[in-house]
Design goal:
The radius of gyration is 24 Å and the shape is elongated. 11% of the residues lie in helices and 41% in strands. By secondary structure, it is mainly β.
Length: 322
């Protein structure tokens, strides 16, 4: 469609961008416990934490829904040292941002919104958008939440029912769903397909400082049978310091996924796989590396995120304690 994605900042917070998407069902639930809310969203959408207080829910790239946004931004109230003393004050800041960023703005505060809100039309980079925004206070009055649905004017009527369903699912006490802080609950059932605890040891052929050939160091290989199409991800937990590399190869020998040792995140993303016999190889990433490791392969028939893995199987950054 050639549309642009437009970020707008209010008080240093990214408030509107990205996109939201298509089916009417809200199969997934995202709960941000620290901020005290949960919200439902369709299985075909993705979520992004833009920063420590902003959640973006969007459709996938390549669809019309990519150009639509449902956003929740949370602000500390003046009661606890924040900038805004009432929801209306925060809403006014958003209105000012619209006016300063668009040559033509039409704001209606009496129509669609429930509570303190507005519906506005404005332009960004030659595109006209329509936005429904509501600002509400948390029960303790210490946090204001700004919820917004934004879309190009031609897509707004199509995705408005989705936005209404999401708004209706939004709970401000954090009781909906059963996941931990900042985690997603989806219809995807993620299971452990393979796990092993082992150790890579230095071999005599690796003792020369001039020998950087990983092929001359110890390599451990494991066989994995995948019986149905779906998605897999790896996790590799090491001792603190050494670098090991775990790679997953498909039956043709093509590397499907890998987790290098010089990154903090123990998980890889999810990768599509077909039935067959796969091979996992663990090698030192540097010839001096020697470490115990925990290797796990996760499988689901549906695509899943690293945040979902972390919610189910442990933190994204961790080490084996010796």
């Amino acid at each position: 469609m050639g549309r642009s994605v437009w970020p707008a900042a209010v008080g240093g917070v990214l408030c509107c961008a990205l996109a939201a998407g298509a089916p009417m069902g809200l199969e997934n639930v995202y709960c941000w416990r620290e901020l005290g809310y949960c919200i439902g969203y369709p299985a075909s959408w993705t979520f992004t934490k833009a920063n420590d207080y902003t959640l973006l829910l969007s459709g996938r790239a390549g669809t019309d829904a990519y150009y639509v946004t449902v956003t929740i931004a949370s602000f500390a109230a003046a009661l606890v040292g924040g900038r805004y003393d009432t929801p209306q004050a925060l809403l006014n800041a958003y209105k000012c941002d619209l006016v300063s960023g668009s040559p033509v703005v039409c704001v209606d505060s009496s129509g669609d919104p429930t509570g303190t809100g507005y519906v506005a039309e404005f332009s960004r980079d030659g595109e006209t958008f329509r936005q429904w925004r509501v600002v509400v206070a948390r029960a303790d009055g210490k946090v204001f939440h700004s919820w917004a649905f934004t879309a190009p004017v031609d897509l707004y009527p199509t995705y408005r029912p989705i936005a209404e369903a999401m708004y209706a699912s939004w709970t401000l006490d954090g009781t909906a769903g059963s996941t931990g802080p900042g985690s997603a609950a989806t219809g995807a059932s993620i299971s452990v397909l393979f796990e092993v605890r082992d150790r890579i040891r230095r071999l005599s052929t690796c003792n020369s400082d001039s020998d950087l050939s990983l092929g001359r160091c110890q390599a451990l290989s494991y066989t994995l049978n995948i019986t149905s199409s779906g998605y897999v991800a790896l996790s590799l937990v090491l001792e603190r310091g050494p670098w090991l590399l775990a790679s997953l190869y498909d039956p043709s020998g093509r590397r499907v996924a890998f987790r290098p040792g010089n990154v903090n995140d123990v998980y890889t993303g999810a990768h599509a796989v077909s039935p067959g016999t796969y091979t996992i190889v663990v090698v030192p990433q540097l010839f001096t590396a020697e470490s115990e490791f925990e290797l796990t392969v996760y499988f689901s028939t549906q695509e899943f995120s690293v945040d979902e893995l972390a919610a189910l199987y442990g933190p994204r950054s961790r080490h084996i304690q010796r």
